Amino acid sequence: MACTDSRSLRDHVANAPQAAFLFDNAADVQFTALDRGTSLGVRPGEFDGRSVLVATASQLTAALALIELDGCARRITILPPDAETDHLPAVIAAAEIDAVVLDSGSPRHPAFDLPVHAACVPSIAPLEQMPAPHLRTEWVLLTSGTTGVPKMVVHDLSALTAAIAAKSAADGAAVWGTFYDIRRYGGLQIFLHAVLGGASLVLSSAGEPVTDHLARLAHRGVTDLSGTPSHWRRALMRPAIRSIAPRYVRLSGEIADQPILDVLRAVFPHASIGHAYASTEAGVAFDVNDGLAGFPAAFVGAARDGVEMRVIESSLQIRSGRTASRYVGAGAPALAGDDGFVDTGDIVERSGERYYFVGRRGGIINVGGMKVHPEEVEAVINRHPQVRMSLVRPKRSPITGAIAVADVVLKAEGGRPEAQHIEVRDDILKLCREALPRHKIPAAISFVPALAVAATGKLARRQG
Questions:
Q1: Which of 3.40.50.150, 3.30.750.24, 3.20.20.10, 3.40.50.12780 would CATH assign to domain 9-351?
Q2: Domain spans of the chain?
Q3: Distance in angstroms (rounded) separating the CA atoms of residues 411 and 415
Q4: Of 1, 113, 315, 432, whose CB neighbour count within 10 A is largest?
């Protein structure tokens, strides 16, 4: 069942179990402490009715600020960690921001010279009187994957939490973990899962080695763990992955192909493994928990849990109460069509009784006038038993304009004899020839030790 109540985050933490905590790599904060004090160190009502920018460096202090501000601030704009400082004046102007929450690691910028400031800290200071939440706060999230000033999307808490259902009693025994940053939509969903479900949450930390993060997850006894397929592929390269035993493994943010689902099933044989589809604009559309890539064709054309989906010219479109309401800013484009459907830009193809994601409309490689979706080729390469992950990218060509080339990370650690590289390369090309038309077969394959992952948790794609 979906959460449709109108309570603020403060209301939820007031009812949290005593065993529920927020954990990062430096501090622990008990949820219930946030109902009895403040992490912002300001007078009661200081942020009442204001448009507030949360620009903390730490995820923990961002989480504390969100709990304290929801229901009191008119609008909360969440600044992600990879936001360009050059874009700050435009973001502040578009969101009509008149207050800012910083912490000790926040960047220093003249744009933060606003009427109200607060320095958020992990320690909770008691207050005799806390402002009673009374506003329907707007939540503004910045989109990723755009050049220039990012688009800013408006949600409210009911839309953000509409897909969240408590899977068990709120007894504090559940411990969520995420490789995401909670200042992006995917990570924010996990934060809200924990708050509404009475669970603890282990936060990731910028720059923290994956092995150290896995060690913290193991130490806290993580039960539910979420990340992108790229997050999971990087984690699977570390022996420390064997130190955790989650009961629920969740993938989202990128295409979950069959190889990554199969590997996770082998590593976590007793876990429930699911992948979710969501976007900052469209919200959470569905979860798939049958162990298979793609999603059932029956999801399209009929309302399910208040979500309607359709496919127009191969692009997935969504209408539901979980979608954002609009973009912020003068001259901002319409977020949805006149009929309320949001065009996600994600391209799907039907095969039998299932739809499969093949890539982004904006990520197509044009090879002599023919389309190549990098993700479609990567899904084939990733089937090879010795491949951990791959990235297909364009390379300029004087003849076709562009060709597709692939960077591949192999599972085995250490160097490989060149002859063995040649054998694996030939096997990969054979797989591609059997599954793909000629123009989609990579013109070159390079073996690399690692692939860059952006702050969003997705593969860092670049133009050739």
A1: 3.40.50.12780
A2: 9-351, 364-447
A3: 11
A4: 432
Three-state secondary structure call for residue 10: helix
Indicate left, alpha or beta for 283 from its phi (over 0: left) and psi (-120 to 50: alpha): left
**pLDDT number for residue 413:** 53
pLDDT range class, residue 124, cuts 50, 70, 90 = confident
Q: Are 404 and 390 in contact (CB under 8 A)?
A: no
Amino acid at 25: N
CA distances in angstroms from 277 to 77, 178, 257, 361, listed in the order given: 23, 16, 13, 16
Alpha-carbon distance of 405 to 395, in angstroms, equals: 7
29, 201 Cβ separation under 8 angstroms: no
What residue spans of 227-350 are helical by DSSP H? 229-236, 258-267
Backbone angles phi and psi of 330, in degrees to 5 = -65, 135
CA distance 246 to 132: 37
Chain centre to alpha carbon of residue 269: 25
Q: Which two tokens stand for residue 383?
A: 């089937």
Taking 50 as the threshold, does the pLDDT of residue 416 lie above it? yes
Same CATH fold, 364-447 and 9-351?
A: no
The token pair that represents 463 in the structure block:
């133009």
The whole-angstrom separation of Cα 311 and Cα 309 is 7
Give the position of tokens 């073996």.
447
- Cα dihedral sign, 414-418-420-421: positive
Q: Which of 241, 242, 228 is nearest to 458 (CA)?
A: 228
Q: Are strands 200-202 and 224-227 parallel, antiparallel or unpaired?
A: unpaired
Going from the C-alpha of 68 to that of each of 16, 104, 457, the distances in angstroms are: 15, 18, 27
Under the banding of pLDDT at 50, 70 and 90, the label for residue 419 is low
Domain spanning 364-447: CATH 3.30.470.20: no
Q: Which pLDDT belongs to residue 128? A: 67
Q: Is 331 left (phi over 0), alpha (psi -120 to 50) or beta?
A: left
Q: What is the pLDDT of residues 12-71, one digit of tens each?
A: 998 899 999 999 998 999 999 888 888 987 777 889 999 999 999 999 999 999 999 999
Amino acid, res. 246: P
* pLDDT beyond 70 at 298: yes
Burial grade of 86 (CB within 10 A; 0-12, 13-18, 19 or more):
exposed
Q: Are 456 and 184 in contact (CB under 8 A)?
A: yes
329/152 Cα distance (integer angstroms):
8
Q: What are the pLDDT digits (tens) for 216-225?
A: 999 999 999 9
Q: Hey, how many other C-beta atoms are within 10 angstroms of the C-beta on 250? A: 25
Whole-number Å distance between alpha carbons of 209 and 220: 17
